Amino acid sequence: MATFLADVYLTLKSEFPGLPIFLSLSVEDDDNFNSRLHYTRGLLNLSDYVAVSTYPFSQPSVMGEAANIGSNWFQKIIDLAPHKPFAIAETSYIAEYLIFPGITIPSDVHEQRDYVEFLLREAVQKRAEFVTWFVPFDYDRLWDKIGNTQEQWKRTWKDTGLVDQNFLPRPALNVWDSYLFGVGDTEWVLNFKALFQRWESHGGQHPAIVWNDPSVMRVGNEFWMWLSGGFSRDGVKIYRFTSFNGVDWTIANGGKPVLVPGDKDAGDFDWLGTETPVVIKAGEIFHMYYSAHKNGQFPFLTMGHAVSLDGDHWQKLGELISITSVVGNNAGNPWGWLARGEPAAVYIDGTFLLYFTDVKCRHSDCTGYPAPIRGISLAVSSDGHNFQQVGSQPILIPDEKDYPASHGWEGFTTPWVVPVNGKLELYVANFRTIDARSVHRGISRFVSSDGIRFDSVSHHIVLPTENRWSRWHVRSPSVIEHDGALYMWFAADDLEDGVTDPFDAITGLGLATLPQK
To answer: Is the full-model pTM beyond 0.85?
Structure first.
């Protein structure tokens, strides 16, 4: 066999010198791997890649428990030819019990997800050329046709799909998608226990209501956070909290909201609710920009502006009509007619830069999949209230390569902007249609030298998790630089399919940190 492989390899290389040719070599637990080490070394001489085939769930040292996979699983074969490119030619992991006569290998969707997280993290760190999963869909129907007691090995991969036999995605698919669309900033350290949640009053320190949309800054030796409290159709209000460490928070202003909805009878544009605050400071004045459903027209979203000297007592200056007059006016399908809201702001050298979510229909007749498209637009101002948009289009819209509409990606929402090392960093939530529902499925990071042209740093820094409070939506990043690190607070919830009342869901705030190099 070795002579045959050598003849094939040398013949093909002579005819196609630039074509990568490789063998798929098995990686197993240490005992099995070491027993074949001599043959593996010989075969690597006939392969341009260190390309591996591995199914760890069936190995004696693993037996369905992903946590038992050794940290050197891939490194041990890479070390045999470290000068060659690495690739994972075939792999998978069972999501259900695998039962053969006389042997049962336990597993479930959580073990499969844990393996995919390990697999793709290793692939990124070891710069794999590609990863191939076998097989993407469960083949229960095929097994019903081909299965027989003489060839039980054919059932080995029946339940390894990232999509199950009913065509429903498994948790591992979300992890796979996060890497498929790009991944970076793997050094972010996440606090996956909610800082505070709906239904938790933390000893009476704050009300147990739906918390959302954090906006954090340093004031003196404290962190101050403004955030939305409540639910859209019940009149969301804005509250302030304080913290010395960014994790343990106490409500300020005597537990009362600092900004409340306007008066419907008076014709106030924000009578339905005030939410998604961003607070910045220009000189001695705090400026708050916030979202409101324009004159109670749900879901049309517009923006308001308020100012304060102490962060608790605010004077509303009204709607930002210089840029929001288009909201609700669909003639010509302009950017912003569905929404201009969820503001993010920064004050630099006497200029206010306001970034916001800009939404229109993908097509003029509001058809297509998904129907909306969401971008991030920019407007500037010298007085903080009268803004002029930069250009006629959003400065950031989803790249079809990274966020294909065919996969349900609508675009970006809930932006946050922060100066870091002389540049502006922009964080956004990624909005996606899943089963006819629009959901926030992760947070991405971009950077710019001029505040207009942004380059991608990483996609999906934070993803939904299996923790109940963060297993469906992840959104609303708020990032500051502090003590040589980036701190990012974000909102999340488990308001998934079937949960129609937000007060039946758990919502919370998380914290991620990234040490600066």
So the answer is: no
Question: What is the per-residue pLDDT across 383-408, written as a single tens digit (0 to 9) for each?
Answer: 999 999 999 999 999 988 778 888 88
Q: Which residues contact 296 (CB under 8 A, 6 or more apart)?
A: 264, 271, 272
Could you read off the pLDDT of 317-354 as tens digits, one per residue? 999 999 999 999 999 999 999 999 999 999 999 999 99
Tokens of 372: 């909306």
Extract the tokens encoding 102. 């006389």
DSSP code string of 268-290 = -TTTT--EEEEEEEETTEEEEEE
> Is beta strand 485-493 parallel, antiparallel or unpaired with respect to 507-515?
antiparallel
Compute CA 410 distance to the chain's CA centroid, rounded to the nearest angstrom: 14
Residue of 489, 511, 450 whose CA lies nearest to 217: 489
For residue 305, what are its two tokens?
A: 């502006």
- The secondary element (H helix, E strand) that includes residue 388 is strand 388-389
CATH number of 189-515: 2.115.10.20
Strand partners, 302: 292
Q: What are phi and psi of 429, to 5 degrees?
A: -90, 145
Distance separating the N- and C-terminal Cα atoms of the chain: 51
Which region holds residue 202: left if phi is over 0, alpha if psi is between -120 and 50, else beta? left
User: How far apart are alpha carbons 464 and 389 in whole angstroms?
Assistant: 33
The structure tokens listed for 362 are 């993908």
Structurally, at CATH architecture level, domain 2-180 sits in Alpha-Beta Barrel (3.20)
Q: Is 123 left (phi over 0), alpha (psi -120 to 50) or beta?
A: alpha
**Are residues 472 and 495 in contact, defined by beta-carbon separation less than 8 angstroms?**
yes
Say which residues have a Cβ less than 8 Å from residue 95's Cβ, sequence separation at least 6. Answer: 107, 108, 109, 111, 112, 138, 159, 160, 161, 164, 170, 172
Structural tokens at position 421: 């090392």
List Cα–Cα distances, 213 to 210, 231, 488, in angstroms: 10, 12, 12
Where are the chain's structural domains?
2-180, 189-515
**CA atoms of 285 and 280, how far apart (whole Å):** 9
The token duo for 238 is: 């804005």
Residues belonging to the chain = 517
Retrieve residue 229's tokens.
């409290």
For the packed helices 171-180 and 109-125, what is the interaxial angle rounded to 10 degrees? 20
